[in-house]
Amino acid sequence: MSVLRKIGSVILLSMSVFSAMGQVNDEVNKKRKEALEKKERQSRERMEAGKLIPLEDFFRNAERESYQISPKGSYLAYLAPINGRMNIHLQEVGEKEGKSITDVSDRDIASFWWVNENVLVYSKDTGGDENYVLYSLVIGGKPFELTPAKGVRANYIGRVENSDSEILIETNERDPAQFDLYLISVNDGSKKLLAKNPGGFSNWIMNKEGQVVLALKTDGVNSSLMRLVNSEFNKWESLVTTNFKESITPFFLSESGNTVYCISNSGRDKSAVVEFDLAMKNEKKVLFEHPQVDIDYLVKSKSSHSILYASYNVDKREFQFFNEKLGGVYTKLKELLPGQVVQMVSMTNDENTIVVRTYSDISLGGYYLYKVDSNELVNLCENSPWLSSKFMSKMETFNFTTKDGVQLNGYITYPAGKERKGLPLVVNPHGGPWARDEWGFNPEVQFLANRGYAVLQVNFRGSTGYGRKFWELGFKQWGLKMQDDITESVQSLINAGTVDAKRVAIYGASYGGYATLAGLAFTPELYRCGIDYVGVSNLFTFMETIPPYWTPYLDMMYEMVGDPKKDALLFEKTSPVFHADAIQAPLFIAQGAMDPRVNVKESDQIVEAMRARGVQVEYMLEPDEGHGFANEENRFKFYRAMETFLAKNMTR
């Protein structure tokens, strides 16, 4: 009871501070609203005059994003920019405007979560190092660090169901390569070790009492679903073990606690929603599967331990509902918001008030608040009201069969109002590479289309979402068959006359940056120029400089990418840095100095190799960025340089 009184006194004290902040925030909101209206008016005038849309309009921070409703529905929290950095804002339900409750200035707040009706937790890193620190914030008060240890990464896991003041986190403070599970108080930061990681453990699953029950363990190749049998001595038993190519990923326990809901491709090509029996140690029932694609996510009910819906992506994002009431709500929302993808992104504990997000290929969409009982839908905001969808370019599906008979899917965006003949093309391979491109609003694609370029996005073999077989086709194919898929897709557009063979550029980030370098080195005749954004150039050094918490997965990466020792000849063949002498086209490279995934040496090496040969290369190195540029001013700088680079090198 004393703890509850302490929390209450903090809240009462904080609310008076919050009230005092109101006048300042009202003035800030007024100025922001006036500035926004001016920018909207200027942008609309430019678009209607047929002029180029300012690049800042594509890449500036959203007006508001990441709306989340508090557990009981009193407040809405969201991220909005303050002096170019995304900060948390608070809005009482029923009010039109919110007020900022954080004032970070060095780096955007990455994520936040409601703990109870008056407390939020948020995460932020420093300069892109991805060592996320968690902060606790009582409404109206000042944030304090929950995980202050330097050089340590902390991950938010979730709330404890029977507590309003404790959350589950994991940190690699004890061992940089392993994450231990802790129970931590949001009131004072005191923490209790719940599970010391025995090695390779992740995906902790708790019961409703907040006790650790299950986890996943990997030895780098094999993956086991583990059950805790003795917490005092940290003893675990394996329920089932699969090769990493077959996965059983647990999401949460059933109400009884006897089964766990999972997504699994064990014994099948496509990942399905399954129920796993803990006593029998096997798959009990397949609840849902799709014949074309993997199921990729499950959403749990806040009022019971049951599945609300599963998510998957064929050409567009789709949902399978297990809760009849919520399925009916979704049908109503689709009718109210036609022609868009509709997502339920946050809801109250009683699931009667829902935050809804919409988007399409030509709009970043907006946020709505839907009250189930009254069927009331309220528009909260548009994400980028300064961009009119009527001036955007449609994203169309792209299907292609390779020479060796592999069916590829992807998307192509043609510049609006241009004849589809002899167009300049930017091919944009996605990162990962174990990811996929999706249908939706992509500011890079729309920016390039507005500048007159067609944009091709190919889900080359090895991309995820299309089943195990398609994924495995990409194993040890960096720079080989994966690259051939991109090359052949581009060539098909050239052969059809849609694309000008003399004006093809390649641009990508992370693995897409590697594909850019590989394209210029291995098919130099195809590309006029290339843009490598935080990309890998040397597979040997890439493997040597991965973050320590990736090391448990090294053996798996050796099988998917290659082993630096056993596959040394393959790495020499497919690392662009060793073939820099073949690169003839102009190259632009952008890199964050703090990147923990693709070390800055990856870009340094290829730049040095190119300059030693006297080949044109532009290098943008940002000291306060990591794996991609998060700070708004750095994004503007990068895309300005990209626009100039393409305009200079893609002329006839």
Q: How does this structure look, described?
A:
The chain has 12 helices and 35 strands. It is of the alpha+beta class and 652 residues long. The strands form 8 sheets. Strands 28-29-31-30-32-33-34-35 form an 8-stranded mixed β-sheet, with helices on both faces.
Describe the structure in brief:
The chain is an alpha+beta fold and 652 residues long. It has 12 helices and 35 strands.
CATH architecture of the domain at 396-649, by name, is: 3-Layer(aba) Sandwich
Spans with pLDDT under 50 lasting ≥5 residues? 1-24
Proportion of strand residues: 25-35%
Estimated helix fraction: 10-25%
Instruction: State the helix count.
Output: 12
Q: Which oligomeric form is depicted? A: single chain
Largest sheet: 8 strands, mixed
Measure the end-to-end span: 76 Å
Write the layout of secondary structure elements.
Elements: H1 2-48, H2 55-59, E1 65-69, E2 75-82, E3 85-92, E4 99-100, E5 111-116, E6 119-124, E7 133-138, E8 144-145, E9 154-159, E10 166-175, E11 178-185, E12 191-195, E13 201-206, E14 212-218, E15 222-230, E16 235-243, E17 248-253, E18 259-264, E19 272-277, E20 282-288, E21 295-300, E22 307-313, E23 317-321, H3 324-336, E24 341-347, E25 353-359, E26 366-371, E27 376-382, E28 395-401, E29 407-413, E30 423-427, H4 443-450, E31 454-459, H5 468-472, H6 481-495, E32 499-509, H7 511-522, E33 529-533, H8 539-544, H9 554-560, H10 568-574, E34 587-592, H11 600-612, E35 617-622, H12 632-649
Parallel strand pairs: 30-31, 30-32, 32-33, 33-34, 34-35
Antiparallel strand pairs: 1-2, 2-3, 3-4, 5-6, 6-7, 7-8, 9-10, 10-11, 11-12, 13-14, 14-15, 15-16, 17-18, 18-19, 19-20, 21-22, 22-23, 24-25, 25-26, 26-27, 28-29, 29-31
